[in-house]
Amino acid sequence: MPLVSTRQLLDEAAKGGYGVGAFNVNDMEQIQAIMEAAKETNSPVIIQASRGARAFAQDNYLYHLMLAAAELYPQIPLAMHLDHGNSFETCESAIKLGFTSVMMDGSLKADGKTPATFAENVEVTRKVVDYAHERGIAVEGEIGVLGGIEDGHGAGGSGLEHVTDPDQAVEFAELTGVDSLAIAIGTSHGAYKFTKKPDGSVLKMDLLIAIHKRLPKTHLVMHGSSSVPKDLQDIINQYGGKLKETWGVPVEEIQLGIKNGVRKINVDTDNRLAITGAIRKVFVENPEKFDPRDYMKPARAAMQKVVATRMVQFGQAGHAGDYTAISIADMAKGYANGTLSTKPLVAAR
Ligand code: 13P
Question: Distance, CA 85 to ligand 1 centroid (Å)?
Fold first, then answer.
């Protein structure tokens, strides 16, 4: 299957009532781990690269690795997504390269740190939507500001400082026409999300439910959704790491989100932890080894295990064969004739 639009994956997920994990990558082994997990569980999947990943791997390497993945796993619907684009130019360059969806994170200014005004966010996001939809490419926006910092991008803080206002979310969706919307409900990027086990009241699930009721056609996105499992922390610390005690987002909260309109779930940290733990283990147990394959193989396998587990938990497992690809050219036609519109006023008609 060619690379498909994230919008198609999310529309199908909405029909089937499940979520789709969007896993971050920087290199070949991470792409391989995700694709093997998708094959193992028969799952559609979104692979995403941040600006940091693009700088690390170089655009052409990343793109051709993604093409290889699509070629090697023709049975898997696979979308290539830009995570946290900070400007029109970043999104434009991703679209020109071949990404099938982009996130324009206009919740922050182009420095990727300072919260932007609502008007600034609308202006840059709408510009990206106009450009992207004309070319059949889907756009994720963000309203409210997530906590933490990932790859140098983020306002920092706890994630509860700028939670999404439902009225603003509706206005934002109407003014921009984004396909999907990242909302801030108390999650944050990175390993250090919560200092104690979060109970049901920590995340603002009531906000999420309210937003979904008012924006039923806009797919909701949960960022910062790693669960930071204790066993992965323990392996790192057992083999010489120094992670402080921390808690992530409980999978049950994500599953509650999926019941209420969350269709894309971003996971990066859990995979980083799995890879690092596996490599540390080899280094400590077999200090004589020096062939990178001796530690990259277990690292890749450890990541595959985490991704496959999430695919089952998010409900995407078993759905790879449900549909065939809509071409990006046909997606462009759908945007042009309004059938793919998510604007609340259009949706209400
Ligand atoms: P985690 O740091 O929780 O994995 O979140 C990743 C993310 O949201 C990428 O955009």
Answer: 14
CA distance 247 to 46: 25
Residues at CB less than 6 angstroms from ligand 1: 24, 83-84, 150, 189-190, 223-226, 266-269
d(CA 141, CA 124): 10
Q: What is the dihedral of CA 283, 287, 293, 296, to 10 degrees?
A: 0
Distance of CA 169 from the midpoint of ligand 1 (Å): 21
Task: Give the pLDDT of residue 47.
Answer: 98
For residue 163, is pLDDT > 60? yes
State the catalytic residue, choosing from 11, 27, 59, 83. 83
Say yes or no to pLDDT of 347 above 70: no
Q: What is the DSSP letter of 177?
A: -
Locate the ligand 1 atom nearest the alpha carbon of residue 83 and give its number: 10
Our answer to whether residue 83 is catalytic in this structure is: yes
Taking the C-alpha atoms of residue 174 and residue 139, their distance in angstroms, rounded to an integer, is 14
Q: Which two tokens stand for residue 299?
A: 């690292």
Tens digits of per-residue pLDDT, 40-98? 999 999 999 999 999 999 999 999 999 999 999 999 999 999 999 999 999 999 999 99
